[in-house]
Specification:
- With 420 residues, this protein is an all-alpha fold.
- The chain has a single domain, classed as Growth Hormone, Chain: A.
- Helix content is 81%, strand content 0%.
- The protein is built from 18 helices and no strands.
- Helix 2 packs parallel to helix 8.
- The protein starts with a helix and ends in a 7-residue tail after the last helix.
Length: 420
């Protein structure tokens, strides 16, 4: 009997090791870096809107900073995609990760909200590396493990971020709002510095390409060729990929309008305290840890489309309950928020990985991020303006209403059986 039990244990261990055998090389380096960066950013951003307000800003200011930063980020996405398909990727990723640490140092030392805007612009310029980074992630995941792989990213990053809101709450009680947030952003700057060192271990994944240098980097921004390629690439992709991008853009604006005002609404309208915010953040983190791998398994088994439809329907119901929630109801809603985050992130990323042709991953990644960030910029400005000048509840109603057309469009035009 003991021998049989040991044999079963070895068999189980062997199956687990086989299931997660893709966690090695580049993907392992990527996961470790994500763990560091996400944990610290979550802590620093726990009270970010209130930090901006304390430095002389408002809800509109938060939206303005977000809008400007994503416009700057968007401008780098199409050149970044061109670079990812035509040059070696590693140096760009390492250098820009290091430069991002300097941008977050400005966040930490800002005497007024204007310096936060400066730091946001600086860090946003660095995200030109993300198409190259995304391409390496796609190329490091087997097709039949993409749902599991992206859910594992959710799991690993949520494990690291779970204590972050609680740590932010402890720092808040000791150093106050401004002091604790400054400490948080100093730690973010340090984490990006460490991540840049880790990413020197990355291995190029798409054959021989020339090395990118400063001259070519500037040329990619100033030339029209990379921009033309970023738009032209949509002629080469499956129809469902274009439909997915359009559906996602339609959902992004209302989502951002809601999220840019969320902390203000929770504190000013629902009476949630700063410490209670940290508790809610922790519950969401723990729930995402529990749900991440099961959600990825379901998405690999049933496809990408059904979970997306489920997510849009659940979002409508959760927002309806959110309008007049108290802290106790928010405790109930927090796991639903976690489920929605896991579902949308995993299903959409896996679907993009399925549909994007291998030789166009950089260009598609950069181009889609450009369009998505343009939508985010609109949402950032609109959210702050609506909250300050129109209504505190209108952002929630806008988000609720948007779930209906995106559900219908996903149902009709997104085909998760289509492949690149």
């Amino acid at each position: 009997m003991d021998g049989q039990e040991r044999s079963e244990e070895r068999g189980l261990a062997s199956r687990v090791l086989d299931e997660f055998s893709f966690i090695r090389g580049n993907f392992l380096v990527i996961l470790i870096g994500w763990l560091l960066v996400d944990a610290t950013r979550e802590m620093a951003y726990t009270y970010y809107p209130l930090y901006v307000q304390a430095l002389g800003g408002s809800a509109f200011t938060v939206g303005l900073i977000g809008s400007v930063s994503v416009i700057v980020e968007a401008l780098g996405k199409i050149p970044g995609g061109y670079i990812a398909d035509n040059y070696r990727r590693k140096r760009l990723i390492v250098v820009m990760t290091f430069m991002a640490s300097i941008g977050y140092l400005v966040f930490a030392l800002a005497p007024t909200w204007h310096f936060i805007l400066l730091g946001a612009v600086m860090s946003s310029l660095c995200w030109i590396y993300t198409p190259a980074f995304d391409s390496i992630v796609m190329e490091s995941l087997p097709e039949d493990k993409r749902g599991t792989g992206y859910s594992l990213v959710n799991l690993i990053t949520r494990v690291s971020t779970t204590p972050s809101p609680l740590i932010a709450g402890v720092l808040f009680t000791t150093y106050g709002l401004v002091g604790s947030t400054r400490i948080g952003f100093l730690i973010v700057a340090a984490s990006f510095l460490v991540a840049s060192v880790l990413r020197t271990r990355l291995i190029e994944t798409h054959g021989e390409r020339p090395e990118i240098d400063a001259r070519e980097l500037v040329k990619s921004f100033s030339g029209a060729h990379s921009v033309i390629e970023g738009f032209r690439v949509w002629r080469e992709v499956p129809r469902s990929l274009t439909a997915l991008l359009l559906v996602e853009m339609l959902s992004i604006v209302p989502n951002v309008v809601f999220n840019v005002t969320l902390i203000f609404y929770l504190v000013q309208e629902l009476g949630i305290t700063e410490l209670q915010l940290s508790y809610l953040g922790t519950i969401i983190g723990v729930s995402m840890i529990i749900l991440a791998v099961p959600a990825g398994k379901v998405i690999d088994r049933v496809g990408r489309k059904k979970p997306l439809l489920f997510g849009y329907a659940l979002t409508f119901l959760a927002l309806f309950a959110f309008l007049d929630a108290d802290f106790n109801l928010m405790l109930v809603l927090a796991p639903l928020i976690a489920l929605l985050n896991v579902t949308f992130y995993t299903a959409i990323q896996a679907l993009y990985a399925d549909l994007i042709p291998e030789d166009a991953r950089g260009r598609v990644s950069g181009s889609k991020d450009f369009f998505r960030l343009a939508a985010v910029s609109i949402g950032q400005l609109a959210g702050g303006f609506i909250y300050d000048n129109v209504s505190h509840t209108l952002p929630t109603y806008i988000y609720m209403a948007s779930t209906i057309p995106v559900f219908i469009l996903t149902l009709l035009f997104v085909d998760d059986t289509e492949k690149a």
